[in-house]
Amino acid sequence: MLNRLLKVTSAIVLAISLTSCGEDQVAVLPGGGGSGTVPPMNLVAFGPLQTVNPLLLNDLSFASTDTAITVADADDSGRGAQPGMVARVASVSVGQFGPYRASALSINAELRGAVTRAAASGVGFAVMGVEVIVNDQTIIDATAQPLQPNVGDLLQVHGLPTVVGAERRSAIIATRISRRSNDNIYKFVGEVSYVPCATCAAAQPTLKVGGLQVTASATAAPGQPFPPPEGSLVRVVAAAAPTLGRVDANRIEQYAPLFTVDDSVSMRGAIAKRSGESLTVNGVTTTLTPSTQFVGGSAAELVIGKFVQVEGKYTAQGISAQTVRVLP
Q1: Tag placement on the chain: N or C end, fewer CB within 10 Å?
Q2: What are the structural domains, with CATH classification, of the chain?
Q3: pLDDT per residue over 42-65, tens digit each?
Q4: Which residues, 6 or more positions from 254, have their beta carbon under 8 angstroms from its beta carbon?
């Protein structure tokens, strides 16, 4: 499903060309190179890192001489950004069409914690109640080889959220897996659903994220809705491993990448929902318009679970898709 997701291909949706600026490789969009003064344009890209030096993500190359790197909860174990880690790269062009220089790169693992279901072959296991999908493009860090997870093992998984089955089980399509030693931070990404709880206090609603019941002992991240809406995609952070299918959350925050209105956006992910011309990818609403162009497939192929790369403008309603690339 994710074949060649992390592989640099020649079919680049934005048809970028690479030019040299000193020793940096930077992306130039079509139409660049004109004279005159033009305003800078922000580009925010979200997806698995293909390479780190040079910085390559979504087949886009960014100059990264002075990039500020933020890794949540020391997810890099002090090793820095690694290929396969899902990252958000904020950049700005020196003109209307580029070249682009990465101003900030942020990483936050999708899963970190205990294996809650094992599988003999390393395929079909779960971490923190969320299924992990491994394929031939998943990078298995040396610390996790051979991949033979047992219940209770501590793993960290970077990847793209999706859902599987008619019951919409939360899953992560793994792009990088590593092993962790003793830990005091546990986190997971999944869809929100609510379960009956006649005895729950209003300030402590019981909800289900992925395969775990979550007791929220603290408020959500500042400025985010709490309790989170049914069906929303969230990241849960806890200080202890789950017990009997339940975890006590220190923090619940929306997973969706942070975009700003009028940003140009490049985002890879799996379609989690579709309603008419509206898609949900990585928790972000994406709207297809009559002018949306399709590469590698058609609008009819945009079904739940399909992998896509969306290029467009971010608005108050989400991404207005200019191009949708259907990934194999």
Answers
A1: C
A2: 17-107 (no CATH), 111-254 (no CATH), 264-326 (2.40.50)
A3: 899 999 999 999 999 999 999 888
A4: 221, 224, 225, 228, 232, 233, 234, 235, 283
